[in-house]
Amino acid sequence: MRAAFATCLIAIAGTASGQPLGCPATPSGAAIGGVQPWKLDSAVGFTAPRFHVDADGAPDSYRVDDRGLSYLCDGSVGIVNGKAVNPPAPNWNRICLDAWRAARASGDYGRLRIFGMLTGPGNVPAVQQPGDPLPGLAYISTTTLAVPDAPRGTQRRYVNSRTVPFYVLPSRFAQASGIRLGAVAAVYRHRNRALAFAVYADAGPGGQLGEGSIRLHLDLGNDPIIDRSGTPRAKRSISDRVSVIAFPGVNAPATIDTPAWLETIRSRAEAAFRKWGGEDRLRACAEGA
After folding, report:
1. What is the pLDDT of residue 284?
2. N or C of the chain: less Cβ packing under 10 Å?
3. φ/ψ of residue 7, rounded to 5
4. Taking 70 as the threshold, does the pLDDT of residue 242 lie above it?
């Protein structure tokens, strides 16, 4: 455990009444990828040294021609001898690309484990249809959180990374911490003091803390889309500290009415954050993290 939890007990000014507000946080499980999560009152938080981009749910995330915001092998891996070859295994990307080429030529997708796209019978990835944003041009990109009042089997069923500020957590960590899909959070970028509010909408099996949607990156002052060989890719991470303060007991249910959902996310997350202690307490808890 890092020294943050000892130094965190030092009080700083933080309440409207002028009373000191400290950070008597306790570790929340083991460190994940070198990042130590913690608990304090109603919140579970962590400070990541780098904040990555998740473009899942965006209509142009996974294009059929592999010229989307994400590479096809960001949302899939190859299978060799019945086992998924995950990064950072040697040659994992080549194995994945070879499996896609073979699948397209044969129609057999059995050599791929696809997790970023909707799949149908035979593990075939679902292509967007008329009524979707990019019919015939892109696969349906999924998020763990579904939009319940949107039609099944459409891109609208999933949370759009371009329009909704959401954060990503390893599924085991979220379960152990009691953070359910739809839980709101305050997200703070220390370098520019940008404060954003977000919803938990995507889970991953990996061991990484510090990832959010395109919209969340923009709210934090970072444009994550860069040009790579003539193709826009969502690959520009935030390379400075970002803190995520999640509130497991405060939920913003997904709805197809995006403006209404955004307002619910903002209002509920902001109220929970202010009640918990706001920016002063956040900075105290992030000190030394």
Report:
1. 84
2. N
3. -70, -20
4. yes
Q: Which domains does the chain have, with CATH numbers?
A: 4-54+161-286 (2.40.40.20), 72-141 (no CATH)
Most distant CA atoms of the chain, gap in Å? 69
pLDDT level of residue 22 (50, 70, 90 thresholds)? low
pTM: 0.90
CA distance 242 to 5: 18
Nearest CA among 108, 110, 51 for reference residue 78: 110
Q: What are phi and psi of 210, to 5 degrees?
A: 120, 75
Query: What does the alpha-carbon distance between residue 167 and residue 30 come to, in Å, rounded to a whole number?
Result: 20
**pLDDT value at position 7?**
27
Q: How far from 11 is each of 15, 255, 289, CA to CA, in Å?
A: 11, 40, 16
HEC profile of 51-98: EEEECCCCCCCCECCCCCCCCHHHCEEEEECCEECCCCCCCHHHHHHH
